[in-house]
Amino acid sequence: MDKSKDIIVCRCSDVTLAEVKSLIDQGYTSVEEIKRITRAGMGPCQSKTCGHVIEREITRATGKKMEDLEPHKQRGPIKGIKLGTIASARKGEKHED
Question: What is d(CA 23, CA 80) in angstroms, rounded to the nearest whole number?
Answer without folding.
Answer: 31
